[in-house]
Amino acid sequence: MTKKAHPVVLYVEDNPASRRIVRMLLQNRLKYEHVTIFQNSDDFEARVLALEPIPDIIFLDIHLKPLDGFEMLKVLRGLAPFEKTKIVALTASVMNNEVEQLRSAGFDGCFSKPIDLDTFEDNLHRALAGENIWEIVG
Amino acid sequence: MILRRLIILFVLLFLLSVGESLIVFRLLSDSTLEFERITDEISPTLITASEIRASSTIVVNEFISVALVNNTGTPEVNFSTLQLTTDFQFDGLVVSGEIAELEQAIQTLYQQVETLETLMGASSTEVENLTVAVDDLIVTGITFLNMTQQTESFTELADEEMVLELAGDRIYVLVDGLIVDQQMRLVNLETQANQRFTNTFNNAAIGTVLRGLFFAVTIILISVWVLQPIRRITDTAEEIAAGKINMQIEQQSAGELGSLERALNQMLEAIRERDNQTVKLNEQLEQRVTEAEQARAEAERSNQVKSAFLASMSHELRTPLNAVINFTKFVAQGDLGEVNDEQKDMLMEVVDSGRHLLHLINDVLDMSKIESDALTLFVQDNVDVSEIIDTVVKSGEVLIQGKDIELRKVVPDDLPLIRADGQRVRQILTNLMSNAIKFTVEGHIEVRASYTDESITITVKDTGAGIAKADFENIFDAFKQTEQGMLTGGGTGLGLPISKSLAEVHGGKILLDSEVGKGSTFQLVIPIKSESLKLEIDQKV
Questions:
Q1: Which alpha helices (H) appear in B479-528, and where do they start and end?
Q2: Residues of A in contact with B423 (CB under 8 A)
Q3: Is any Cβ of chain A less than 8 angstroms from the Cβ of B362?
Q4: Using the beta-carbon criterion (under 8 Å), do B318 and A21 form an inter-chain contact?
Q5: Size of interface A-B (CB pairs under 8 A)
Q6: For B285, phi and psi rounded to 5 degrees?
Q7: Within 13 Å, how many C-alpha atoms sit on residue A41's CB side?
Q8: Per the CB < 8 Å rule, is A136 touching B378?
Q9: Cα separation of B469 and B240, whole Å?
Q10: What DSSP string describes B255-313?
Q11: CA-CA distance, A138 to A14, in Å (whole number)?
């Protein structure tokens, strides 16, 4: 697999502050070229398929409308281009059985909010390398 | 009373049997003895009588023989001088040889009469008559003999002979009569004996029949007096046992059976009482069970509510902090343009406060979960504690900056991997480390790891202020703090209580050894593979 300079990232998030933080980190600071951020999950399937290039890693906020994190995941897993894509949940809390739900739903990991700027990049690369990171808090 | 009746009956029966046997026995022996005695008496009499008969015949014949032979020279015998005795002798007679025999015969005859006298008694009429008859015979014989001397007239001799024979006959008659008498007696006795035997036998038979009747009567009485009442009571008791608990046993009997009836009825009453009580207790119990179930259901609902609350609180409280911390960071770190040192300082303080606030929120949420039993672990196998220690020590080094503290790490290369929630283990160790740093002004802090077959132990030892024994319990108690803690400020005071709970949920514990002024040693003991931890997520290889 040819290693791109920077990973292609998709982030779906309805909270403006969170969006801005990720953009500041990945685009401004780390200079990733391909960072796409959806504000909601409208027309999710169409929009993801229209992406070019295909993301290497997708971060999903769980509590979204009209599709929530789980539903988006299901859609993605059903689309051929995204079969191998790492899909990671990004959330401010994971309670009790939510972990099990995330796992059995098929998420490759879960990062916590507030985002830790110091470790985010590292964890991202580890996730891309195939490690399942479960930053469970809350 | 029944038993007494029975005993009396059977004793009587026994005595009856014994008495009967004795009587029968006695009668039989008596009869036998008497019979023997009389037979003993009669036999010799009969024999002697027969002998007398025979002897008389001999005497008569001898007289006749002598008479035939003796014609001459026989002197007259003077009857007045005649002594008829057993020693009878023809004195001075010139006789032929047969006289001796005649004398012998007469003597024998008299002897026999004497014997008979002995046997039958001197006063016996038969003996008297016989004695007279024998005397008469002898006299008649002698007269005959004299006559043979005096005359040769055949007719006269024949007549005298006739008289002699008649005398002999007379003896026969008497003897025969005697014999017949004795024989009759014997027959009578025999008959009597038989009669008595028969009577005794009949008596015995009757006795047996009576005894049989007695037994029958006894059995009937027992049946009526004892068995029937018992059967009646038993039947009623069985019916009651089968469920008719409200029946009573009829009071029909007296004495012991009556007592039994009463006692059983009392027992029934007691059982009914207890039944009622049991029913009541059961009702109460059921009620309490229902109440308990309701309480449980409520508690569960309450817990669910709390869980939901915690979930949303967690989310709501933390989300703003994302902006607070990270936006400030970006600005402070120059991503939005240059900032001077003063600005940076201030902004970083904002970041610190934000982090602190986050920490507080996490602690409060953790504590709430622990309190409402809502804490769950994210358990994984093969958690590398060495790595965690490394991380913790690194961040510790950052915190230490400025203080004169040496940070040491002693971790064996072969520290086993464990089954645990890695993040929570890190949380505990971070807590211990930050406590150590907080409370130590100078000296060293040592982090040491060791292990056994069952568990690993991580020791954080400092040369800090130490903790008073009195405070040992308090520091693990939420919302209580040591004096030092209050003085140094910072922290929520929840760190150790949370660490303790986290350790315990893993099946482990936190140990403390400390002395004021001498530093503290905190130890986290964690099982390598706690049975109580269920794997939340399988490690994907």
A1: 483-488, 495-505
A2: 135-137
A3: yes
A4: no
A5: 75
A6: -60, -45
A7: 20
A8: yes
A9: 70
A10: HHHHHHHHHHHHHHHHHHHHHHHHHHHHHHHHHHHHHHHHHHHHHHHHHHHHHHHHHHH
A11: 20
Substitution target in A20, A25, A93 with the highest count of B β-carbons within 10 Å is A93
Joined together, the tokens standing for residue A47 give 């929009």
Give the sign of the dihedral formed by CA B292, CA B298, CA B299, CA B300. Answer: positive
> Mapping DSSP to helix (H, G, I), strand (E, B) and coil, where does residue A33 land?
coil
**Paired sense of beta strands B404-410 and B442-451, if any:** parallel
C-alpha torsion sign, points B447, B448, B451, B457: negative
Nearest CA in chain A to B304: A96
Smallest CA–CA distance from B358 into chain A, residue: A114
Span of B47-56, B257-266, B505-514 with lowest mean pLDDT? B257-266
The answer on pLDDT for B493 being more than 70 is yes
Q: Which residue in chain A has the smallest CA separation from B329?
A: A117
Q: A57-61 and A86-91 as β-strands: parallel, antiparallel, unpaired?
A: parallel
Q: In chain B, pLDDT over 70 holds for what percent of residues?
A: 89
B372 at A interface, C-beta within 8 A? no
User: Alpha-carbon distance B511 to B514, whole Å?
Assistant: 10
Query: Is B476 a residue whose pLDDT tops 90?
Result: no
- Rounded distance, CA B6 to CA B231, Å? 18
Give the three-state DSSP class for B161: helix
- Side-chain-facing half-sphere of B342: CA atoms under 13 Å: 0
CB B520 within 8 A of CB B464: yes
Cβ atoms B532, B507 nearer than 8 A: yes
CA distance B271 to chain A (A): 55
Q: Supply the pLDDT for residue B79.
A: 56
Rg (CA), chain B: 74
In the structure encoding, which two tokens stand for residue A132, read together? 């399942």
Predicted pLDDT of residue B81: 53
Tell if the CB–CB gap between B325 and A114 is shorter than 8 Å: yes
Cis peptide before A53 (omega within 30 of 0): yes
Quick check: B323 contacting A, CB < 8 Å? yes
Inspect the interface and report whether the beta carbons of A100 and B537 lie closer than 8 Å.
yes
In this complex, do B423 and A113 lie within 8 Å of one another by their Cβ atoms?
A: no
This model of the complex carries an ipTM of 0.89
Q: Which residue has the higher pLDDT, B29 or A80?
A: A80
Q: Which token pair is B348?
A: 């970083």
Matching residue, tokens 């026969």: B172
CB contact under 8 A, B378 and A134: yes
Name A95's Cβ contacts closer than 8 Å, sequence gap at least 6: A138, B307, B310, B311, B314
Tokens of B488: 């140094």
Q: Report residue B289 as tokens.
A: 């069970």
Inter-chain CB proximity A96 and B315 less than 8 Å: no
| Block mean pLDDT (10 aa), chain A, length 138 | 74 92 91 92 90 92 87 90 89 72 88 88 91 72
How many Å separate Cα B536 from the centre of its chain?
60
Residue whose C-alpha is closest to residue B430's, from B404, B470, B458: B458
